[in-house]
Each structure stands twice: as structure tokens, then as C-alpha cells.
Design goal:
Oligomer: single chain
Radius of gyration: 19 Å
Number of helices: 8
Order of helices and strands: EHEHEHEHEHEHHHE
Shape: globular
Largest sheet: 7 strands, parallel
């Protein structure tokens, strides 16, 4: 299917690895011009180079999204490369990495997580959304999390921040500009892979170096009840992002699309 993205320019924040990298590559396969963003210049360059080797168009910008000046600078650089940015994917963010609960969570940690996720997205949206509105065409995709609607007792700061992004998504759409969120469920990553393998070995369920399907089959039910029976991939999120960014999705806005294999119990 032709998603009609040829000639569009997409800026994907946090695209030097993981889900962001998969999203950037998916846009390139649809012939969009991709701007890869990260804080590590070398990692961003490597992703752009892979895209170019596969026949796609990609360039890089770097910058810390928690800094106003850095965001304004990277947006200027991106626009100097290919002009108008039609598509923005707010993927950068993440949790603090600390194990928290309601018994030990600290306001300072919440502030940092909010800055990294919500305000990071806000800073770059503030630069690009008005231009999309004036041009009567644009797409904003906010990468949220299933934690926003199924918040666990741990990492309450992260769950709250992603819920805030979902609310922000609904209020942002305007004439010609659609804004949607994507909430990943359990997605395969290096961290998840290592965790599953450790649990398999510790519980005697499988050898640590067993093939991934074996690890997944015996360990996934311990972590999450996923009706489709397997872990998602970054490409699953990328495919959703590319479709929602296309002209084919012009009448879809304000949606929180759960890409979770059926984990969410709601209707």
C-alpha cells in the first residue's frame, strides 16, 4: 500500500535506537525524508547511514530536549536541511530508571521525568505546530505507554507523565493537523530480552542462551497476560506511526492507539 508520504519530511525524536529507530526506518521505506534525532551524535549518524544504505533519505540533528535553546537550534537545523517539517514523532523520553513506589517516590524525580517526557514534547511542538497550522497540513504522533491507562504501582511518575501526554494529544489537533498517541504494550528490546533470559535461567525454565521463541513462551506469562501470545516489536509501533502520519489517516485525530496485543482490559 502506498501511504503517500513521498516528499514529506519527518522528524523523529529519540530515534538513534529502539522504537524511534524503527519508526525512522519505516518512514524512510515509505519515501519520506527522515531527520534522525538523538543526544549521541554518533548513534544518530549510524541510524541515518543505515537508512541511506537501504536507499532512503536521512539526516541527523542532536540536542537535549530539556533545554529550550537546544530545541530551537535543532529545529532550525532540521528546517535548513529540507525545509518544512510536516511530521513530528515525539518518541524521546522514558522513565528515570530508578525503582520507585508510592512509598519512596520523590517530587524531584517527578519533575525530571515530566521535563524529559511532557515538556520535551511541548518544546518541540511549540516550534513546529504553528507552522503546520498555517500550512493547513501536519501530523504529530506522541509515543505514550500502556502505563498511562494501566498504571502499575511502580514508576508512578512515568505513568502520570504518559497520561498527561495523552491529554495533551486530544487538545492539540486543529484544521489540517492531526495529533494522535500510540501506547505500546510489552515491546521487545535489549533490556527486555536480557530480563526475560535472566528470569528463565533463574527459575530453571530455559537456558539463558535458548532461542528467543522458547524464552518468550515460558517467561512472558510471568510478566504480562498478552492475548496474542507474544511480545510486540518496535516495527509494530513503527507501522502504526507511519499509517497515522499518512494522508490515509486524515480523519483520525485525538486517538490513543493501543498497540499492546490485547493487554488492555477495557472496551
Amino acid at each position: 500500500m502506498d501511504l503517500q508520504l513521498d516528499g514529506k519530511t519527518a522528524l523523529v525524536t529519540g530515534s538513534s535506537k529502539g522504537i524511534g529507530e524503527a519508526v525512522a526506518k519505516a518512514f524512510a521505506r515509505e519515501k519520506a525524508r527522515v531527520i534522525v534525532h538523538g543526544r549521541n551524535e554518533q548513534e544518530a549518524f549510524q541510524v541515518a547511514e543505515k537508512i541511506q544504505q537501504e536507499g532512503g533519505q536521512a539526516r541527523t540533528v542532536t540536542g537535549d530536549l530539556t533545554c529550550d535553546d537546544a530545541v530551537e537550534r535543532l529545529v532550525r537545523q532540521a528546517e535548513q536541511m529540507w525545509g518544512k517539517i510536516s511530521i513530528l514523532v515525539n518518541n524521546a523520553g522514558g522513565s528515570s530508571g530508578d525503582i520507585q513506589s508510592w512509598e519512596n517516590t520523590e517530587p524531584e524525580v517527578w519533575m525530571k521525568t515530566y521535563d524529559r517526557n511532557v515538556l520535551g514534547a511541548l518544546r518541540i511542538v511549540r516550534c513546529l505546530l504553528p507552522k503546520m497550522q498555517r500550512g493547513k497540513w501536519g501530523r504529530v504522533i506522541n509515543i505514550s505507554s500502556l502505563a498511562a491507562t494501566m498504571p502499575p504501582s511502580t514508576s508512578p511518575d512515568y505513568s502520570a507523565c504518559k497520561a498527561a501526554m495523552n491529554a495533551m494529544t486530544v487538545s492539540m489537533a486543529s484544521d489540517g493537523v492531526t495529533v494522535n498517541a500510540i501506547s505500546p504494550g510489552t515491546i521487545h528490546s535489549v533490556t527486555l530480552d536480557n530480563r526475560f533470559r535472566d528470569v528463565a535461567a533463574q527459575r530453571g525454565l530455559a537456558e539463558k542462551d535458548a532461542p528467543w521463541p522458547e524464552i518468550e513462551r515460558c517467561v512472558l506469562p510471568i510478566f504480562a497476560q498478552v492475548p496474542v501470545g507474544h511480545v510486540g516489536t518496535p516495527e509494530d509501533i513503527a507501522n502504526a506511526a507511519v499509517f497515522l502520519s499518512s494522508p490515509l489517516a486524515a480523519y483520525i485525530t485525538g486517538v490513543n492507539l493501543r498497540v499492546d496485543g490485547g493487554m488492555f482490559p477495557g472496551l
